[in-house]
Design goal:
Length: 371
């Protein structure tokens, strides 16, 4: 990792999919509130990043992902899924169209080897070059209502004009960076990819990171760890791969069918996904909010009148709502918004109801906030 020394000096570290990463710096709750009210910076360099170039680049990515890569203009990106032939989710990804016949795909840290091998395997016979740049391009996320203004102050171009899920090249602190306006917290902000920053010589990454923190002091910016990132994404109702979705989960039960474009020509999993959509699913992913201040945990049963109807996949205590929130899968008949049920918290039934994420008031928090 390019910022390992900073994290060891300032953070409380934990092992995550083979990486030694900061769980928190000042604390999970204060870091989460900093992102909601100002801006936080996350080191996300553990994630996978691959460049795909050549005449066959679009064809390759359209065959591997469920969304419509052909529709992307230069400077545009999209959220998408990679599915297996049975329609199960191999990973959720973002794809960006950087230039003529050049694309950039970002995927989850735990799937770096699996996804890269899958891309390589399916590229055979196509006129395409596939390059894993995960260890040579640092990746940061700056998220929160003040994130864009801070990034603009350091940028050589008008990054404020980048639309949501758009991307563009700029220089930050004199270093070449790709900036995309996405995020995993529900808040507005950017993902910053610092080019020419290998783990053997991460000076560019350190320069950009330190400059963001230095200039960010006046904005109330703080470094944030995995704990805050997980809490924030759950408040926003976003999935964590391996916890909320996996290869035994299909996009329709996960409520991710909006990124499956069955109208495009054949792609991996299309036939099975068409079948699943026509037949419907028996279960569905939902948001759950508890009546009392309890913490739902992964694996807790969801019941109705004592009958098990589902399972919690992610849960936490929301500092914004001061109550328990969760995501999980329940029988489809129990998935309507407002449906009342119970979560078995260490053998004790706690009243909860189905809610449509995000869990917070979108007029006050998140990228749709009125201010």
């Amino acid at each position: 990792m390019q910022l390992q020394e900073f994290h060891e000096r300032n953070g409380h570290l934990t092992e995550f999919v083979g990486f030694n990463l900061p769980l928190w710096f000042k604390g999970i709750i204060p870091e989460s509130l900093t992102v909601r009210n100002a801006a936080g910076i996350f080191d996300t360099s553990h994630m996978g990043r691959t460049l795909v170039r050549g005449k066959g680049a679009q064809e390759l990515l359209d065959n591997l992902t469920t969304n419509d890569v052909a529709s992307l203009k230069i400077g545009q990106g999209q959220y998408s899924l990679i599915c297996n032939p049975s329609g199960g989710i191999k990973d959720d990804v973002t794809v960006f169209h950087l230039d003529n016949e050049q694309y950039f795909i970002v995927y989850n840290a735990g799937n770096r080897a699996k996804d890269y091998d899958w891309i390589l395997t399916n590229s055979r016979g196509l006129e395409v070059e596939v390059e894993d740049v995960s260890d040579s391009v640092a990746m940061f996320a700056i998220q929160g209502p003040k994130a864009r203004q801070l990034t603009q102050e350091l940028s050589s171009t008008q990054v404020m004009e980048i639309p949501r899920f758009g991307c563009g090249w700029t220089e930050l602190d004199g270093k070449k960076c790709l900036v995309s306006r996405t995020g995993y917290t529900g808040e507005d902000g950017f993902e910053i990819y610092t080019w020419n920053s290998p783990i053997t010589n991460p000076s560019n990454a350190r320069g950009v990171w330190n400059k963001l923190l230095e200039v960010g002091k006046s904005y109330g910016v703080e470094p944030c760890g995995l704990g805050a990132r997980d809490l924030l994404r759950l408040e926003a109702g976003l999935c964590l791969y391996g916890t909320d979705i996996d290869e035994n989960t299909n996009p329709y039960e996960a409520k991710l069918g909006f990124v499956v474009k069955l109208r495009k020509k054949d792609f991996v999993g299309k036939e099975k996904l068409q079948e699943i959509k026509e037949k419907g699913t028996l279960r569905i992913r939902v948001g759950l909010i508890t009546e009392r201040r309890v913490i739902p945990r992964h694996g807790f049963e969801v019941t109705v009148l004592g009958k098990v109807v589902g399972t919690v996949t992610s849960g936490t205590l929301s500092p914004l709502l001061n109550t328990g929130i969760a995501m999980g899968y329940v029988e489809k008949v129990c998935g309507q918004e407002g449906f009342e049920l119970e979560i078995q918290v260490r053998g004790r039934p706690e009243k909860a109801r189905v809610i449509k994420p995000p869990f917070y008031d979108t007029s006050q928090y998140g990228y749709l906030r009125k201010s």
